[in-house]
Design a protein that fits this description.
This protein has helices at residues 2-10, 27-35, 82-95, 111-126, 141-152, 165-177, 211-219; strands spanning 15-20, 41-45, 63-67, 76-78, 102-105, 135-136, 159-162, 187-191, 205-207, 228-233. It is an alpha/beta fold. The protein has a five-stranded parallel β-sheet, sandwiched between helices. A five-stranded parallel β-sheet has the order 6-5-7-8-9, sandwiched between helices. Helix 1 runs parallel beside helix 7. The protein is elongated and about 60 Å long. The two termini are 16 Å apart. The model has no long low-confidence stretch (mean pLDDT 85).
Amino acid sequence: MEGFAAAADKHGYAITLTKVDGHPYTLESASSRMSALPVDGMVVIMNRMPADFGTFEPLPGMQTVLVTMLEHPLCSTVDNDQFDCSRQVVEYLLVQGHKTVHFISCPERSLSGMQREEGWRETLRAHGIEPPRLVRGDWTAQSGYAAGQALADDPTCTAIYASNDAMAYGCIRGLESRGKRVPQDVSVVGVDDSLGDIVPDRRLTTVRFDNKRVGMWLSTRLPAPRGVRLAWSTC
């Protein structure tokens, strides 16, 4: 949001932010809401899969950009590479000498989580390693704590990859509650580098995405300035 707002302001855009709900929610319904307003373009931040993703057609004159790794036949898409994030984490841990990498996933409807999970599985299999059973969390530190306690009892677990830093940090505390040392006994890696302002001395290996730059890229996919409606879809 920070990157998109800065780029939009630089180019003379006005922005309106809307939260899109519905079970299931659709791109068509979001586009219909936006078309009632005097706007030229729409950005949809896809945290979960719209029911009509494969069949959606943007309205004439409503240029639409989707924030997702998935390709769409009619809309531009922009996102960080969630799959390669997992590949880099898994290969980093295997290079350290670990025989396998356990994974703390996130809610199944999360698109980024699904892509990180796929990257974890495929990278292990590319190295001839059958992925161990994952532990599903809910993005919270508490779910990471429970996962850490459960994995502490698994003698094959020497490396854990968590889908975000909150779960990674909770996992570390869960492991320590069962007498495990991090990183001496178990290595833990997270994603998003989000705890720097709230957790002192966290000492957590993590992957940082340049989300600000993604937001700035979005403005290059939109038409000449007048107004932009930004539709926000929530997990």
